[in-house]
Amino acid sequence: LAGSRPLQHGRGSALRDVANRLRVRALRARGNHPTSCCSAAEIAAVLFFQAMRYWARQPAHPSNDCFVLSKGHAAPLLYAAWAEASFLKEPELLNLRKINSDLEGHPTPRLPFVDVATGLLGQGLGVACGMAYSRQVLRQGQVSALGGRPSLGQMAGENWVAMGGAGVGKLGEAWPGCDPTLSGQWVDPGSHWGENPGVLAHFCSLPGGGSLPGVEDAENWHGKPMPKDKVESIIGAIQSQIQTHEVLVPQPPIEDVPQISIAGICMPSPSEYTTGDKVATRKAYGVALAKLGAASEHVVALDGDTKNSTFSELFKQAHPERYIECYIAEQNMVSVILGCAARDQAVVFASTFAAFFTRAFVHIRMGAISQSNLNLCGSHCGVSIGEDGPSQMALEDIAMFRAIPGCTVFYPSDAVSTERAVCLAANTKGICFIRTSRPETPVIYPPEETFEIGQAKVVHKSDADRVTVIGAGVTLHEALAAAHELAKQGTHIRVIDPFTIKPLDAATIVNSAQATGGRIITVEDHYTEGGIGEAVAGEPGMVLQSLAVCGVPQSGKPAELLDLFGISTKSIIAAVKNTFAS
Amino acid sequence: LAGSRPLQHGRGSALRDVANRLRVRALRARGNHPTSCCSAAEIAAVLFFQAMRYWARQPAHPSNDCFVLSKGHAAPLLYAAWAEASFLKEPELLNLRKINSDLEGHPTPRLPFVDVATGLLGQGLGVACGMAYSRQVLRQGQVSALGGRPSLGQMAGENWVAMGGAGVGKLGEAWPGCDPTLSGQWVDPGSHWGENPGVLAHFCSLPGGGSLPGVEDAENWHGKPMPKDKVESIIGAIQSQIQTHEVLVPQPPIEDVPQISIAGICMPSPSEYTTGDKVATRKAYGVALAKLGAASEHVVALDGDTKNSTFSELFKQAHPERYIECYIAEQNMVSVILGCAARDQAVVFASTFAAFFTRAFVHIRMGAISQSNLNLCGSHCGVSIGEDGPSQMALEDIAMFRAIPGCTVFYPSDAVSTERAVCLAANTKGICFIRTSRPETPVIYPPEETFEIGQAKVVHKSDADRVTVIGAGVTLHEALAAAHELAKQGTHIRVIDPFTIKPLDAATIVNSAQATGGRIITVEDHYTEGGIGEAVAGEPGMVLQSLAVCGVPQSGKPAELLDLFGISTKSIIAAVKNTFAS
């Protein structure tokens, strides 16, 4: 395990020259944050050419040390470092922020040396903790995160959390001998580094404008490109300080990382549910996750201090060494899981109340920009949680996750389909969200039933069907009850379980609509906006009625609330009749 | 100004008895968190019957001191205190969490003694800071926030931020003589209180189960109702400790709060834009906000360290004493603004990049549950920001705000309509979101043009129109360019500016669709999901083509990106032609 790596002494002047070459490149690139780049030049020089071990020609090599540029607006500095390491060609740096270049304004994994996209201040330390966690399981690697003063200043909130139980603290606990530290304000190349052992180094950069003649410590330079008339004289002044042209070669990594595969994970045993059993989908999630953990040692689970409600506790009981308790800090939880998932080192699942994932929306969207493979399970969706009231009811989570590019949104309606959703999520790229419910509902699928992403199930059907009703979770069971009640009255309806809301099985829905006179009713335990109804409304050739929760709900018994907010069996029957009235 | 209020000595035993009566009531109510209630009973007793000044019969009296139950799951304790104060009747407490009662599982403003809904841990201190801020402007009042260990523990993140620049620190700075403090772990009634001066007291409650025989300090009691067989013996044990039945009457407030009105604010002068001027809507926001601040001394503005990008700096320059810099801490900013807005003490506007409001989604949703009147302005929406890349581009913000109950979503397309949006937002209940853009776009409305919420403008029209195109912000200007280009080719289209996306002017849209053969095209600088296209798709009798951003974007020039993601003039012309091809 890499940890403390004292500097080779006598390299100080060469490192100072590297730092100044990085400054010159960052200024030439004409980015928007020259001071933020220049203030961290020494730190980058020391990290990339002294402390870190990596193959410069293979930036994504699994054995390479990891680096997170938490202050993503200093991207030109990162690009300059990879040019110094000869991975990027000098002329490419001048394509910064151009449409045909991968050198974006803030770093993204379009570049092989970027594991996690940054540009949202404050997330870096949590991400680095997650990376270090995957790595410490493998007993190797050093992870560094570089943050600016805002990261350690106003954004301290997130960093304090990251330093706590689920962050650096967890590493120390999970990994005896690891002594993670935050290092200080200033790095004097050639000294001190050796005094900062540990898996994580989170630096605060220098005062704005570090070493820029006429700019250092002056006000109002942050976030402003260097004016053309100034830039050449500043570059000249910096170049005049360069004493040697010694090229420093980074140390190679210790190649101790086995190539692991996280693909093709199968459940070790079939589902053990019997049709008619009453099982909450949130519990089926926990059962499935524990089974998945037995299928692969690379499955890691996190929870935000709700494990006895989300049932991730079943995973913890079975695989305690691969469970990370993140406490009530959902933002940090998502930062940590982003890091855990980096470089395909783990299959990661994080769970909490679906309502509380709204606290991490910005981190989830960064996960999409990071091309990250995350699985998130949100329990206690909708008014059907009952007495705890609106603050605990997720009614906007489908809208939130549908708006995440490439996100797969699972909304299983029974225990068997929940188990399939967990297994499919483990094997699906991108961000997956699994929405689970609190109430116990009957198992409707046989244990051997197969499910595919984007494939709906027609769960109730006859040739006489005159309306198609789409329900999910608790409302699918309300729709089935409505179908049976209406059948007694001689009205037949078709009932569809979409299984995934994104992607949506448009073909099955459109075909059913055609078979039922174009009449479609959606019923969901979610707000109207961004929910199932709006997802379906985009499809052509149907007359849609959307039954959804309108307005802020309240406490009450689940059944009372389904009635009050018009998504119960009663409301579905009324809507079906209304379809013909109009 | 209320601040330090030494306890009247010799009341300690009476306060201890109050605390035990609160425990008994909380246990009788059979809530889910008896230990969380009982552990804070002494604190509640001291606050409600010693420290705070209020009219118990008029809980919403403007001169009353304020109390925020940050640990909202201890709601039964709050209800018990108001029963002790004789505002609630004892039997009502037994209706806790029932559908016909306002005593919800977590407190909401359906109760007159609740200013801000809680149930999301960690927000209380920021909210209390905001309340104290509105109050200190009025030179009165004491605000207390009560949080549990999670609030001060794992959730420390948010609280550290609240203690910083934009929170308690700001109060000290804005209000010389205010010495806000966090008081300690334990309150011994009858002592110490006097040593904790200041406007804010944020307590950590006792170890789980405080004073519950057989429960105190035992494991696994958190969040569990007391079992029926145990509860009576525990209640008996507590009652046996009650020595007196002295009823303590809270101290009346100092009635020094003038009744203020924040209704009917009008701009002091007409818009000063000329049709054809090129002005960014983000700049028009700053201009309008500064004018609004001149119209009413009750207008307060906050920003998340982006004031020179959102142009809220124009308000700061004009009204520095009513500007709160919240730095890069959007969650705390929304908590603070929630508090500022409480009890209609201020007209509040907060601004940052629209992308960064996703960091505060959970706080915004709590704002809706709090029935709060907030105005949020998100700048730099969409790919049209250009080079900074996807982490800075808001493409999910319309989806997010549409999913907030009762939220008004303004998406102005020029400077005049932006100024109207700001004035309408100031006079509109609930949460208002104003989406502004980075690029400069032409002013298209005359200065005297009037706008209404839910009223769209048909900005381009002829009797020969064959397609209706709906655009907003930069895409409205792309649509107008397409209309002119197509007209040259003999194809006429109608162009609509929706002005508000929620509520949507369905009548105008449906009428235009009917007038143009049912053919509608929406074009938006936002992801497909939850955006303008889906909002329109719900309307009947139209064939809709939705042009929106698909997939994670990248850096580039704004015009290049509009083309690349298919929302430019070129793409609109192609879509119009495609409408007839199919």
Automatic annotation (TrEMBL), chains A, B:
Self-association state and partner proteins as the record states: Homodimer.
GO molecular function, one term: transketolase activity
Tagged with keyword Magnesium: yes
SUPFAM superfamilies, sorted: Thiamin diphosphate-binding fold (THDP-binding), TK C-terminal domain-like
Cofactor: Co(2+); Mn(2+); Mg(2+); thiamine diphosphate
SMART domains given in the database record: Transket_pyr (SM00861)
InterPro entries: THDP-binding (IPR029061), Transketo_C/PFOR_II (IPR009014), Transketolase-like (IPR051424), Transketolase-like_Pyr-bd (IPR005475), Transketolase_BS (IPR020826), Transketolase_C (IPR033248), Transketolase_N (IPR005474)
Name of protein: transketolase
Lineage top rank: taxon: Eukaryota
Documented EC number(s): 2.2.1.1
Keywords: Calcium, Magnesium, Metal-binding, Thiamine pyrophosphate, Transferase
Top class in the EC scheme: transferase
Annotated family: Belongs to the transketolase family.
Gene3D superfamilies to which the protein is assigned, alphabetical: 3.40.50.920, 3.40.50.970
Residues of the Transketolase-like pyrimidine-binding domain: 279-443
PANTHER family according to UniProt: TRANSKETOLASE (PTHR43195), TRANSKETOLASE-LIKE PROTEIN 2 (PTHR43195:SF4)
GO cellular component term, pick one: cytoplasm
